[in-house]
Amino acid sequence: MAQSVPPGDIATQPNAKIVFNAPYDDKHTYHIKVINSSARRIGYGIKTTNMKRLGVDPPCGVLDPKEAVLLAVSCDAFAYGQEDTNNDRITIEWTNTPDGAAKQFRREWFQGDGMVRRKNLPIEYNP
């Protein structure tokens, strides 16, 4: 059963962080690539620490082995220097999909007792 095997690795480009540059009076979009480096199909979901400012499209999906997806991370206009941005990040969560499951994302994959892995990408704002 897929749940008993820990999910394999994913790769992200960029690997460590996302950087947005001023000015912040308009919406910015930054593209990141997520690659399923493992030998199993995975389901992924993206979380963000600041739903008002940050959005990710698509927010979830399914990736076959070695498949990649391009995510658009958007940052809405905000008052730089007047809002706390220290803890802003997106978190990618992923888990193996059940054997025989259709290639369609299901939230319940993350709610059972299967193992879920996480990768945090902090967001840096340049003045």
UniProtKB/TrEMBL annotation:
Pfam families named in the record: Motile_Sperm
Primary place of residence?
Answer: other
Q: Which GO terms describe its biological process?
A: oocyte maturation; positive regulation of smooth muscle contraction
- Alphabetical list of InterPro entries matching this protein: Ig-like_fold, MSP_dom, Nematode_MSP, PapD-like_sf
Superkingdom of origin: Eukaryota
Q: Which residues form a coiled coil?
A: none
Cellular component GO terms held in the UniProt record: cytoskeleton; pseudopodium
Alphabetic keyword roster: Cell projection, Cytoplasm, Cytoskeleton
Q: Known PROSITE patterns for this protein?
A: MSP
Signal sequence, start to end? none
Q: Where in the cell is it found?
A: Cell projection, Pseudopodium; Cytoplasm, Cytoskeleton
User: Which residues are in the MSP domain?
Assistant: 9-126
- Main role? Central component in molecular interactions underlying sperm crawling. Forms an extensive filament system that extends from sperm villipoda, along the leading edge of the pseudopod.
| Name the UniProt record assigns to this protein | Major sperm protein
What lineage, starting at the top, does this entry show?
Answer: Eukaryota, Metazoa, Ecdysozoa, Nematoda, Chromadorea
